[in-house]
Amino acid sequence: MSTTLEDRLDDDCAPAWRPDPGDRISGQVVGISERAGYNEHHYPVVTLRRDDGERFALHALHGVLSAQLAELRPTIGDKIAVMYVGKVDAAGGPGTYRHYKAVKDVTPQLIDWSKYRASVPSDALSIADRARLAVHIAALHAVCPIAAVGRGRAAGVAGVGHHRAHAVTACCCSIRAMISSMARSFALASSIPSSTEAFASSMVR
Q: How does DSSP classify residue 62?
């Protein structure tokens, strides 16, 4: 995948980056594809456009480089830098492997914006957010069907004592009242059954 149709024409023309130990390359990602290597083993190819305009294709044949790129999950337009460290000894065993380091240019988050989400006024919610909230309110509205039969009938239907039935319906009353309050706060009263207010009123008689 590349930025434009013309960029896609240049993808296959970009020379492979063939680094020596210590070599580095950085640039903007302009192409991402996969190739079949030895024994049909697929590996990622990331094409970079350096600041001087030259393009190079990073063939992530080696496991460390492909794993580093997988961690970064680069996409078109990202700026990344890669360094080939060279061959290093495998920890805890014989042999060597080709080691790389890769980083992506990420804009730092100066403050934690998530803590301000709760203070967003209700009229700032998007239509999609209101629709999702309405679905949840409607679902909560049906969580206590036993309360709909009233305190006296609940005791007989459920086979429980009067005091226990009273506790159940009182709990349901609190839940329904909370739902009703939520609906009014988010201007969603028309999205839930109209019996909510009547139910809350009847349970406190």
A: S
Measured CA angle at 98 (ends 93, 104), to 5 deg: 125
Residue 132 inside a domain? The answer is: yes
User: Could you tell me which residues come within 8 angstroms of residue 124 by beta carbon, excluding any fewer than 6 positions away?
Assistant: none
The Cα-based distances of 110 to 103, 105, 107 in angstroms read 19, 15, 9
10 domain-assigned: yes
pLDDT tens profile 135-170: 766 666 665 554 444 444 444 444 555 555 566 666
Q: Would you say the pTM of this structure is higher than 0.85?
A: no
Rounded alpha-carbon distances, angstroms, from residue 47 to 9, 33, 104, 132, 163:
12, 9, 14, 41, 72
Are the C-beta atoms of 46 and 74 separated by less than 8 Å?
A: yes
Same domain for 18 and 90? Answer: yes
